[in-house]
Structure formats: C-alpha cells, structure tokens
Design brief:
Blueprint lengths: L2 H8 L1 H17 L2 E2 L1 H13 L4 H18 L4 H16 L12 E6 L6 H14 L4 E5 L7 H12 L2 E3 L7 H14 L4 E5 L7 H18 L5 E8 L4 H11 L6 E5 L9 H9 L3 E5 L7 E3 L2 H9 L14 E2 L3
Parallel strand pairs: 1-10, 2-5, 2-6, 3-4, 3-5, 6-7, 7-8
Antiparallel strand pairs: 8-9
Length: about 325
C-alpha cells in the first residue's frame, strides 16, 4: 500500500469531521461571503489547526477566490487543498547522509515513543540500511525490555545497560558499536521527563557532548514524538520540549485514531517545526514519511455527489 493511500486512510476520522463539515458548508451555500469565511475559520479551529493558522488559511483563500474568481465548490475546495499543501511543504525530508548518522528520539510516556522507534528501525532496514538502537531511556520502568522486543521484531541490533544507568553512557556505547559494525543509522531512545526540565536539559546536554566528541561530523536529527489524539495539548507539549531540546522534527503518532489531524498544520505553521513521520496504524510498516501533498489530498479527498453547475454553484458575493 502506497504512502498516499496509507495517509488517506489514517486521516479518515479527521476528514469525516473537518473536511465533512467544510463540504456540507460548500454545497449548502450559494455564495462565498463573509459568513462563509467566518464559518470556515471556525471549522478549522475546531479541527485543531490553531487560531493563527486557521486565520492565515482563510486570508489566503479570500485572496485566491477574489483573484481567480472561484465560483464552484470544487474550485474553492481545491484552493483550500493547495493552500494546506503549500503551508506544510518543506523540511519533511530526513537529513541522514553521513555514515553513521544519528537520530535521537524524545517523548513523554504514553505517546508511542518506543513503538515508533521500532517502526522507524524497520522502515530504514527495509530500505537496506544497517540500523542499531540505543536504549538510553533508562529511568522508565520496562522501557529497555519494550525496546528490545521491537528491536527483535525489526531485526536490528540494540545496545542496552541496566535500568537506571547513565543515558549518556548508553549513547557512547551505542555509537561505539555503530562505528564498529558499520551501521548506517543509530537510533537512540532518550528520556522525556518533561516535568523535570532541569534534569532533562542536563541529560540532553551530556548526550550532545558525547555525540559531538564521538561523531563530530555526523548528520543528526532530534525527533519529538507527539500523540495526535491529544490535539492542542500536543502543540503545547512541543513548545515545552523546544525550550529544552534542539528539535529538528516531529513524529505524530495515532493519526488514524483521531479527528484532530489538523494539529499537523498547527505544528508546522505556528511552531515552524516540520512533521517528519506520521503513525497511521498498529502494524510495523504503518509509520509513514510525511508528505505535504499526500496529507492535503487525504484531508479533502472524499467522494462528492454530482454537482449541478447551473443551480448549485457557489457565487462570489459582489462588493
């Protein structure tokens, strides 16, 4: 199954909620007027796109409707889709050209961090990459055992210490093993104890020092795992982590289980952090590289009834 279809299926609940409401409004009105734009903005905000992002989408749509004389529901909807894709575009690619490259994965308990790391390892292995995992989240009960299970499922090596060990020491040993075994990608599970920012900052600083010393010229990504089902809370959580860590991208999990997929727009547009991957299911191959075009298509790509151009077109209200 291709990325477009997987993301399309993962966005089903969001599409039915947000895009369904937009469709109902588009096909229920005879003109694009101020009320239409006000209603659209409210729908977008309710879909967790964020107030600023919703307002920006509406302003851009107003300009295109006026400039291009958009009159039919299909044309207005396509304009919204194009605006969404443009706002999400850029930064979604992973910058991992060196050998080895390193990925640090951060996230609080319950967001699916360990599962995501296992799926990420499986994804890169399927591309022919040699992957090694580092179990540096040493303070969460059972984190090491859970990651080992996913390493076994993905068929990759893992470096671990005992529970409560120094995370930076685990990173050091993982990097050493990665270099010795000619790994392409090193993926490290790191702590996400956001309630104690000082400890987290000190721990991450120590980890960065180890990486700078052992892999001074390596490409690295610091990915924050967020739970899409928490909507606006995920955005707030991202803001908090950005205060203590150099986040280069977001992995948004459980997208298939929520109607709050609009949060992707909020993260990219308001926080200026790209979404790199989305989780769209429980299977090991259900972690998908993010595509702005696939997301925009999946958000609005629904079967529409036949449209009567003569009696049902949207007329732009004259000034």
């Amino acid at each position: 199954m291709g990325i477009f279809r997987k993301i399309n299926q993962g966005l089903k609940k969001t599409r039915e909620s947000m895009s369904g409401a937009i469709d109902s409004m588009l096909y229920g009105k005879q003109e694009v007027d101020d009320e239409f734009f006000d209603d659209l903005e409210e729908i977008l905000v309710m879909g967790d796109t964020g107030v600023n992002t919703a307002s920006e989408i509406v302003e851009k749509l107003k300009e295109r409707v006026r400039k291009n004389n958009l009159r039919t529901p299909e044309k207005v909807k396509n304009a919204i889709k194009e605006i969404v894709a443009e706002m999400l575009e850029g930064g979604e690619e992973m910058n991992l050209l060196t050998m080895p490259s390193i990925i640090l994965v951060i996230g609080v308990n319950g967001v699916g961090k360990t599962t995501t790391i296992g799926k990420l390892a499986a994804l890169y292995k399927s591309e022919g990459k040699k992957v090694i995992l580092g179990a540096a989240d040493t303070f969460r009960a059972a984190a090491i055992e859970q990651l080992q299970e996913w390493a076994d499922r993905a068929g990759v090596d893992m470096i671990k210490h005992r529970e409560g060990a120094d995370p930076a020491a685990v990173i050091f040993d993982t990097i050493s093993a990665g270099k010795a075994r000619n790994a392409d990608i090193i993926i490290c599970d790191t702590a996400g104890r956001l309630h104690n920012k000082k400890n987290l900052m000190e721990e991450l600083a120590k980890i960065y020092r180890v990486i700078d010393r052992e892999l001074p010229y390596s490409d690295r990504e610091v990915l924050l795992v967020l739970d899409a089902t928490t909507g606006q809370n995920a955005v707030n959580q991202a803001r908090e982590f950005m205060n203590v860590a150099e986040i280069t991208g977001i992995i948004l999990t459980k997208l298939d289980g929520t109607a709050r997929g609009g949060v992707v727009l909020n993260i990219k547009n308001d926080l200026k952090v790209p979404v790199k991957f989305v989780g769209v299911g429980e299977r090991i191959d259900d972690l998908q590289p993010f595509s702005s075009k696939a997301f925009a298509e999946g958000l609005f790509d629904v079967e529409m009834p036949e449209h009567d151009e003569e009696t049902g077109e949207i007329e732009e209200k004259s000034e």
